[in-house]
Amino acid sequence: MLVIISWFSFWLDRKAITARVILGISSLLVMAMLMSSFNQRLPPVSYTKALDVWVGICRTFVFLSVIELIVVNYIARSEEQKTSDDDPLPATEDHGEEIPLNQITSEETVTPTPTTGDAIANKSSGVSSQVNRFLSKYLYTVPSKAERIDRASRVLFPATFLCFMLIYTIAYVL
């Protein structure tokens, strides 16, 4: 349950850093408290228990969600700095004679180029085409790399955890 709660940060706005950090760190602290509580109640043994494996992997997933927060925050800040540093027309340069906007005409027609996702979706066929269309709508349409990481984490973290649960159930329960 704590693992799933730690994933809620993927749906929070990336600018809500305080809420995301509190969610991740409090989940880590609760996981540490649970692990120590379990170890105090169980008799000491020299081998690894199934509970140790479960709690260890769950703690790893919570820790990775905090790492994802750090990476997304870093990338978002670097993207913001990059856009603030790119000033298209510096005020100190002389651009020649000023032309009023109502006198500017253009004979050129601008044709839109397909996005990366559209290009990928057009090259594929069958099931992979459907997957690429989903990815093009869900991931590639977002201009921010930080937002794409958050969106990918919304799918990858639960899918990976479900795979772990399946393997754990087969190995320890059955």
Quick structural summary:
Helices cover 67% and strands 0% of the residues.
Describe this structure as you would to a colleague.
With 174 residues, the chain is mostly helical. It has a single domain, classed as Methane Monooxygenase Hydroxylase, Chain G, domain 1. The protein is 67% helix and 0% strand. It contains six helices and no strands. The protein has helices at 2-7, 17-41, 50-85, 116-123, 127-138, 145-173. The radius of gyration is 25 Å and the shape is flat. 13% of the residues are buried. The model is unreliable at 106-112 (pLDDT under 50).
Low-confidence stretches: 106-112
Shape: flat
Quaternary = single chain
Helix content: 55-70%
Proportion of beta-strand residues: under 5%
Number of helices: 6
* Integer-rounded radius of gyration: 25 Å
| Relevant CATH superfamily | Neurotransmitter-gated ion-channel transmembrane domain
Query: What pattern of helices and strands is seen along the backbone?
Result: HHHHHH
Distance between the termini: 22 Å
CATH architectural category: Up-down Bundle
Main beta-sheet annotation: none
| Average pLDDT rating | 80
Return the structural class. mainly alpha
Q: How many extended strands?
A: 0
Find the CATH topology. Answer: Methane Monooxygenase Hydroxylase, Chain G, domain 1
